[in-house]
C-alpha cells in the first residue's frame, strides 16, 4: 500500500466561490511550480495506513514526492525518468516517465494541460467546505477507477483516489505554495551506492 500519487491542467479566471472544474483549470493555468506538505491515508483490505511528507512540482513532468513518516520513500520525476527509492528496502525502481504517468493522477499535477483529453470531469457539489469534482479516466488501464479533487479559494485542498482493487487513498494538502523558486537539483536523482536498481518498464 506504499503508494505515491499526484494531481493538475488548463485555464480561465474564476471567482473564489466558483465550481470545482473552473477552479481546477484556473489553478493549473496559473501554476508553473508548486510545493506543499501532505498527509496521505490509504484504506483497503481491512487496513488503514497513514503517511506524510512533502511534494514539489515543476511542470511539465518534474516532481519530487517525499515521504518522511512512517517510512522514508522518495519518488522523483526528472522529466524523462521516474525514480522510486525505498530506503527501508535499499531498492530503487526506475521507469520511463511517459509510461509511468500515462493517464495517472501524476499527469494531472505535473503533466501538461491535456486533462480533458484524458479525463471526463464532472461537478459533484460542495462538501466539508470544499467544491468537489470527479475525474474519470478515459483510459481504463490507468489503474484508477475514480479520482476526486476538492478546492477552496482556487487552491487544491484534498484528493481522493480509488484504485481498481477498491483501495481508497485520501490526500490532504497544507502549506501549499504556488510558483515558489525550486532548485533544479531537487528534480534530479542518483541512486545511492549499494542499493539494488530495478527497471520497472
From TrEMBL:
Highest taxon of source: Bacteria
Cell membrane in keyword set: no
Gene3D superfamilies found in the cross-reference section: Lipoprotein localisation LolA/LolB/LppX
The keyword Nucleus is assigned to this record: no
UniProt keyword list: Chaperone, Lipoprotein, Periplasm, Protein transport, Signal, Transport
Subunit structure of this chain's protein: Monomer.
Function, in words: Participates in the translocation of lipoproteins from the inner membrane to the outer membrane. Only forms a complex with a lipoprotein if the residue after the N-terminal Cys is not an aspartate (The Asp acts as a targeting signal to indicate that the lipoprotein should stay in the inner membrane).
Name of the molecule in the record: Outer-membrane lipoprotein carrier protein
Species assigned in the record: Crenobacter cavernae
Source organism phylogeny: Bacteria, Pseudomonadati, Pseudomonadota, Betaproteobacteria, Neisseriales
